[in-house]
Amino acid sequence: MTNEELFALVKKNPIGVGCAVLSLALAGAIYFRADEVPAATEELAKKSDEGSRFAANLQNAAQLKEQVDTLTACEKELETRLVHASQQLTNQGYFYKLESDTGTKMTSISIGAPGPQSRVAAKTMFNAVPFSISVQGTMNQMVDYLRRLESGARYCRVMSVICSVPATDRNGPVTLTLNLELLGQP
Question: Which of the residues 79, 106, 179, 184 could staple to 159 if both were Cys, CB 3.0 to 4.6 A apart?
């Protein structure tokens, strides 16, 4: 085929030749840009994740001030309810106040030593301050005493309870022996 025949074919079929040239150009562009598609897809996924994270941050930040105020108030309340291991008289005073409020008679109170901590264990912000107490009174007074411990001014965990009545006098006072822990700081 000569040049003149080629030009005649192009003039005779301009749309077909244009489509063929355009197809070849697009095929070449697709071939040379094919390796950029996975990188562009990965970048799109990163941008989409970042955009959704920003949208979630904006949505969650709407009440951020109120949430910070609530957390600050809870922190202050927690601080008032903690015991400090170094303040033994104040800690015992809590139980003496319960004794006077409920009308019971405290027969013994002792502060136990904190449990052993392993050297590997991370130091925590809070620790338990153990107490052993014995109180005497009527059954209603004992129930009232336990309820006040449960809903009192300190965070309390009762470890063991022994409730007894003297065998010789069934109408005598009930003795309640408690091993408990108060949440505190060193």
Answer: 179
